[in-house]
Here is the input.
Amino acid sequence: MTHIVDRFLKYVTFDTQSDELTNLTPSTPGQMIFAQYLKEELHKLGLEDVSLDDNGYLMATLPSNIDREVPVVGFIAHLDTSPDMSGRGVKPRIVRDYDGGEITLNAEQGIKLSPSEFPELLHYVGQNLIVTDGTTLLGADDKAGVAEIVSAVEYLKEHPEIKHGKIRIAFNPDEEIGKGAHKFDVEKFGADWGYTMDGGEIGELEYENFNAAVARVTFKGRNVHPGYAKHKMINSMRIANQFIIMLPRWETPEHTEDYEGFYHLCSVEGSVEETVLTYIIRDHDRDRFERRKKELEHLTRKINNEFPGCASIDIQDQYYNMREKIEPVFHVIEIAEQAMRNADVTPVVVPIRGGTDGAQLSFKGLPCPNIFAGGLNFHGRYEFVPIPSMEKAQQVIIEIARLVAER
Here is the structure.
């Protein structure tokens, strides 16, 4: 499976960081450049219906090789990398037969990938790992997923003895800024269900994610010369701080795990005259999610009782837990679990403490759970991906295609 490694090492050289401030789709030109490269690659592989639209959504078809109708299955990955760290000039390196010790990423800057800080490294002793040079992220999120999908359809095309139905693949922009599914044409994609290849460690299978909203709470103040401010000044920053400490301190990201939800204060922009707090609200349970939103509204009213007309709040839902859309078609999970077992991978069903394109796609009519792509420590200089994990992900895609035709 050298093709998958070669592909991945090529793909990470494309600078595809997304940018939520441009209000464009794709949000950065590098994503379209990468999509155009992939479009030519898919043509060369002999796929059909290869299309790239003006928004950077690339789709293609591997035709069925059987003479009966079976469901159309889709596989999806995203083109962009996180804005959290530079993805320009990525210099990947293969660490062969990892020995369980520290990995020097950058000797000059003293940057090391150590199992004392990242104990999950010890799960991969003896394996070949792809790491960064410590100055950029790697881009396994989600170029590992892209490489796995392309390599899987290439393998299926080269091995017609593996019977499969029609396979649709898609690569979309701007997942990292929450817009990956916004302009995804589900009807054009034409799959009965799909899988995003965008999970983490080997074995991960996810069909539950947070319900999500963003809240912006604005506090209006009154600025007066501080020497003459008694009974006149209203300092919006002090009122905002009062609001902040009214929320439960243990219901924050740094104190929660598994199915526990939270309020996360993302930013504070303030002056005496005006302060804006931006929160994200997260919970797997829909009722608790709605209660969290009501609690923020309740606290806003309490502030206004003390400082009339000072505070206002705007809450916008972002996405919902896809579980409610997956449970009625639970065979899509059973097939993925069986495909993993066939590939000698133990399924690890875990809730996503975040979002995924699959959640939004599920609510647009395309049930779409998430499967591991194999990478770890996403969005930063310590990102790495074990090569065997990518190879197993490719095998899982192939097994899903075979099982759907078999069933």
